[in-house]
Specification:
The two termini are 13 Å apart. The protein is of the alpha/beta class. Strands 1-2-3-4-5-6-7-8 form an eight-stranded parallel beta sheet. It has nine helices and eight strands.
């Protein structure tokens, strides 16, 4: 059993083929797919997709790369979705200081307000973090939530330990499959196994075995899991079981 803890099933790259994507993943043992939103505009799309596919679970949130166009009223809509539809997490939320001309104050406002909503509804959060780890950690210490997943983790061992102390699992996916990603692979090999979950971030973060331009898909999760198994000197079955257990634990699946 494998759980893809982060897949943008509504992405344009999948066109109208979502049913095929989900069925192909099921055929290789991916039993659950977590589908986060990125903005108010796709809350209802995510809800509909997850209603159509019983093995898909929604998360609702406003992504930091969409906060420049988000309005405070979007938080009221998000609150209604959390209350009425009870997703498994608030996400994808966080901060991104990698993009050009980012507005830190705007990002931080929406991040903090969504942390407050996660706390109110006792939900974990799915974190997007780029060049903003210390700021994310600062806010998590100030606004306590029931853990969650640091998606596409790419920080230091010290930062990883801080997330773990706060009740978070760390998401590893396609980036780990590249031999040149030495620091990330070392983390994947040496972090406590109980702190790791697997993800694709499909259609993004394509693993190294895909040709350039091919979209990532949940069906590739077993091959990503095999990379983790090799790095840790474990069997694929052991990694699948442990990572699925970790995901179930943090997301209450």
């Amino acid at each position: 059993m494998l759980i893809d803890t982060h897949c943008h099933l509504d992405a344009e790259e999948f066109g109208g083929t979502q049913a095929d994507v989900v069925h192909a993943a099921q055929a290789v043992g991916v039993t659950r797919i977590v589908v986060p939103s990125v903005a108010r505009a796709n809350f209802d799309i995510i809800r509909s997709l997850c209603e159509q596919h019983a093995n898909c679970s929604p998360a609702y949130g406003i992504h930091p790369m969409y906060t420049d166009t988000a309005m405070p009223d979007d938080l009221l809509v998000l609150r209604d979705y959390l209350q009425q539809h009870r997703p498994i997490a608030v996400g994808e939320i966080g901060m991104d200081f990698f993009i050009n001309h980012y507005d830190q104050a705007q990002q931080e406002f929406f991040f903090v307000e969504q942390l407050k909503l996660a706390s109110e509804f006792d939900l974990p959060v799915l974190l997007h973090i780029r060049k903003a780890t210390d700021t994310i950690l600062k806010n998590l210490r100030q606004h306590k939530v029931r853990g969650g997943i640091a998606h596409a983790f790419n920080g230091s061992r010290q930062q990883a330990d801080e997330f773990i102390k706060l009740g978070f699992k760390l998401g590893f996916g396609g980036a780990m499959t590249y031999s040149r990603a030495t620091k990330l692979r070392e983390l994947a090999a040496t972090l406590p196994l109980e702190s790791i979950v697997l993800e694709t971030d499909a259609p993004d973060i394509a693993p190294d075995f895909l040709q350039r331009g091919q979209p990532n898909k949940p069906e590739y999760l077993p091959r990503i899991a095999q990379t983790l198994a090799t790095l840790r000197g474990m069997t694929m079955e052991e990694i699948a079981s442990a990572s699925a257990h970790n995901a179930q634990q943090v997301l209450r699946l």
